[in-house]
Amino acid sequence: MNEILNRKALAEALAEKLGTTKKDATIAVDTVFEEITATLHDGGKVDISGFGKFEVKQRPERQGINPATKEKITIAASKAPGFKPAKALKDAVK
C-alpha cells in the first residue's frame, strides 16, 4: 500500500487513538514539529527512542563546476537537517 501520511492524516489518526478532537490532535502534532524544529535551529539534537535521531549536519565549502559554462565555482558552506533511523525503525520497515 503506497499511502502518504501527511500532517492532517497524522492528526486524524492521533485524535482517533486518543479519543480527542481533531483540533486538539492537530495542536499536539504541530507542537511536536515546532519543538523539533526549534531544537535543531538552536543547534541541539532530537533523539526519539525507537524511532531515530534528528540533527543538523554541517556541509563544508567546496568547489563545483557550473554545468552551463564549465567554470569552477565555490559552493558556500551550509547546514542541513539530517535523520538517522533507530534499529527498531529499520527492522520494522524490512
Report on the architecture of this protein:
It comes from Copranaerobaculum intestinale. The protein has 94 residues and is α+β, with helices and mostly antiparallel strands. It is 41% helix and 29% strand. It contains 3 helices and 5 strands, in the order H-H-E-E-E-E-E-H. Strands 1-2-5 form a 3-stranded antiparallel sheet. Helix 1 crosses helix 2. The longest helix has 20 residues, at 22-41. It is elongated and about 60 Å long.
Task: Briefly say what this structure is.
The protein is α+β, with helices and mostly antiparallel strands. The protein has helices spanning 7-18, 22-41, 87-93; strands at residues 46-48, 52-59, 62-65, 72-75, 78-85. The chain has one domain (7-93): IHF-like DNA-binding proteins (HU Protein, Chain A, Irregular).
Which features does this protein show?
elongated, single chain, 3-stranded antiparallel beta sheet, 5 strands, HU Protein, Chain A, two-stranded antiparallel sheet, alpha+beta, about 90 residues
The largest beta-sheet arranges its strands as 1-2-5
CATH fold-type name: HU Protein, Chain A
Give me the CATH superfamily: IHF-like DNA-binding proteins
Major beta sheet summary: 3 strands, antiparallel
Number of strands: 5
Residue share in β-strands: 25-35%
Query: What is the count of structural domains?
Result: 1
So, CATH architecture?
A: Irregular
**Distance between the ends:** 15 Å
What are the SSEs and their pairings?
Elements (H helix, E strand, L loop, with lengths): L6 H12 L3 H20 L4 E3 L3 E8 L2 E4 L6 E4 L2 E8 L1 H7 L1
Antiparallel strand pairs: 1-2, 2-5, 3-4
Helix pairs in contact: 1-2
